[in-house]
Specification:
The structure holds two protein chains of two kinds. By secondary structure, chain A is mostly helical. In chain A, 75% of the residues lie in helices and 5% in strands. Chain B has eleven helices and 15 strands. In chain B, strand 5 and strand 6 form a beta hairpin. In chain B, helix 3 crosses helix 4 and helix 4 crosses helix 5. Classes of the chains: A mainly alpha, B alpha/beta.
Chain lengths: 251, 303
């Protein structure tokens, strides 16, 4: 806990939170405008499902980049100041430092996902959607986003810590964002390989085009559970590989 | 005297090349140990191994009488260090950097103020470290290292980037630490003058091999003074003495003899006189530390 507190302290003057706020504002505004137009054309599909599906879809583009930026900012300060040797000489264990950085990035993205849920709620209430706020649906959306964020962050943090040049990590974030957007076009067995595809893959709402119209369907939780389990296992594997790799690196 | 650091055949190999080979370092309690060597001699690698930042290929490190491998956390809690260039968070102020270390080490706030005062950074503590000069960064690094007033302080080339006044200040600070705070200091440098004025004990490393370890007096004694003889015919004298088993070296208008006992000097003079070679001058040339260092490392005294 002490190390996480110190990591958050070290984020001073990094302007991370204003940057996230701007990023989220752009994404949410975009999603609301698109959803607003869509539902104006077809009032049948107006509802909580449409906005959740839209945000999930856009998260595939925005969150991989956001994760890359957060992980990069949090890790890059150790490269720039050559501070890892100082921290290790202060008996900070490499594995604990890695964990603290991961927890810090995940916490920041957790807050970002929470802000999205709040924004969706406010949007739904403002649009007078017929049903009351669907707490379970929102919770499932939030859980899916947080899990995917955590997996993507595991990957981004490994790159950011292992490679000094952060252009590499940021490029990988952008490539991830691209895959996140186009992954739904791939067959399912290929899509499953890409961790960035799970923003829509774990979304409680799926969208289908039927008769030239888009339709939204609520997915069954049970069908997603095996996927979530495999994803979490893969995340743990990548995390351990990254942590062990970096703890064995000499500074 | 208790040994604070002892290394046993400490070695580090990168690929097929030994960067450090069989180094047996011995630093006593209260020592200011000057670890001397030209650039690339293996000083930093040795210090990193002592701090557990680099794994030795071979050998053992004991600090405070305990094996580093098994007691790293205990040892590092009592050790302050500055290795290579100073480490810092450039986007934070000097004070915020100190607070990071303070929180990591669970130290009282007064230690921060005291350490900043010692290195004379109080007036710049609220400035971002990215805006510091190299010398200020170096002083911040030293402040971070001494902040917990550790039992053992390891400084790797601490005066890098400092101006002459700053070098003098750090030198005085290092000198005062054992008495004021009962610290043992291990300081590395490639500058002989820096070590000469502060160290109570020195170690000289070159190409990863320990060339010498002891007090400065021991170092001076290590090399016997050279004897310089000027004769009426140096060429003939050289030829004659070589035949008699002596190996003088021509040095301008002198013949230079290394490691000659009094009896041998007398014998050399007798040979020259008996062969009618005039002897004009016999001089004893004592080597200063700089030339001893030069002899040992085969390089200049500041490389």
């Amino acid at each position: 806990m002490k190390l996480i507190g110190i990591e958050l302290y070290k984020l001073r003057r990094k302007h991370l939170f204003p940057m996230i706020a701007i990023f989220l504002a752009v994404e949410i505004a975009w999603a609301f405008i698109v959803t607003g137009r869509l539902t104006a054309r077809n009032s049948e599909i107006a509802g909580w499902e449409s906005i959740i599906a839209m945000i999930s879809s856009m998260n595939g583009l925005f969150f991989p980049v956001l994760s890359a930026v957060c992980a990069s900012r949090i890790c890059d300060m150790e490269h720039k100041g050559n501070t890892r040797k100082m921290l290790f000489a202060l008996s900070v264990k490499p594995i604990k430092l890695y964990a603290a950085k991961y927890a810090c990035t995940s916490l920041v993205l957790f807050i970002a996902a929470l802000l999205q849920v709040l924004a969706i709620t406010v949007f739904g209430i403002a649009c007078n959607f017929e049903r009351s706020v669907p707490l379970l649906l929102l919770f499932r959306f939030f859980t899916g986003t947080v899990i995917t964020n955590m997996i993507v962050t595991v990957f981004q943090q490994w790159i950011s810590m292992a490679v000094r040049n952060q252009a590499f990590a940021l490029t990988s974030g952008m490539v991830g964002g691209f895959i996140g957007v186009v992954a739904d076009l791939f067959p399912q067995h290929i899509r499953r390989v890409f961790i960035w595809s799970y923003y829509t893959g774990l979304s409680p709402v799926s969208q289908l085009y039927m008769d030239e119209n888009v339709r939204f369907f609520v997915r069954d939780t049970g069908s997603l559970m095996p996927v979530i389990m495999v994803l979490i296992a893969a995340g743990i594997g990548i995390y351990l590989a990254g942590s062990i790799h970096l703890s064995k690196q000499e500074v | 005297m208790n040994e604070v650091i002892t290394t046993y055949n400490l070695s580090k190999k990168y690929g097929d090349v030994y960067r450090v080979r069989d180094v047996n370092l011995s630093v006593g309690e209260g020592d200011i140990y000057g670890f001397l060597g030209p650039n690339g001699a293996g000083k930093t690698t040795t210090l990193k191994m002592i701090l557990g930042l680099t794994r030795p290929t071979d050998g053992k490190v004991m600090v405070f009488g305990k094996d580093l491998k098994e007691n790293r956390e205990f040892i590092l809690k009592k050790t302050g260090s500055l290795i290579e260039a100073p480490s810092y968070y450039g986007h934070l102020t000097g004070l915020e950097n100190m607070r990071v270390i303070q929180r990591l080490r669970d130290l009282p706030a007064r230690n921060v103020d005291e350490a900043l005062r010692i290195v004379r950074l109080e007036k710049h503590k609220d400035k971002k470290v990215n805006e510091y000069s190299l010398g200020m960064k170096q002083r911040l690094g030293i402040a971070m290292a001494i902040m917990s007033f550790p039992k053992l302080l390891i400084l790797d080339e601490p005066t890098n980037g400092l101006d002459p006044a700053g070098i003098g200040e750090i030198r005085e600070l290092i000198k005062s630490l054992p008495q004021r705070y009962e610290m043992t200091v291990l300081v590395s440098s490639h500058l002989l003058s820096e070590i000469e004025q502060t160290a109570t004990k020195v170690g000289i490393i070159n190409n990863g091999i320990m060339m010498f370890q002891g007090t400065l007096e021991d170092l001076k004694k290590e090399k016997h003074p050279a004897i310089m003889i000027r004769t009426g015919n140096n060429e003939l004298a050289l030829e004659l003495l070589l035949k008699r088993g002596y190996t003088p070296l021509p040095d301008r208008e002198f013949l230079l003899f290394e490691n000659l006992s009094d009896e041998q000097i007398s014998h050399v003079i007798k040979i020259l006189i008996s062969d009618n070679i005039d002897v004009f001058r016999i001089e004893e040339r004592k080597k200063n530390l700089e030339s001893i260092f030069l002899d040992m490392t085969g390089k200049g005294s500041s490389l």
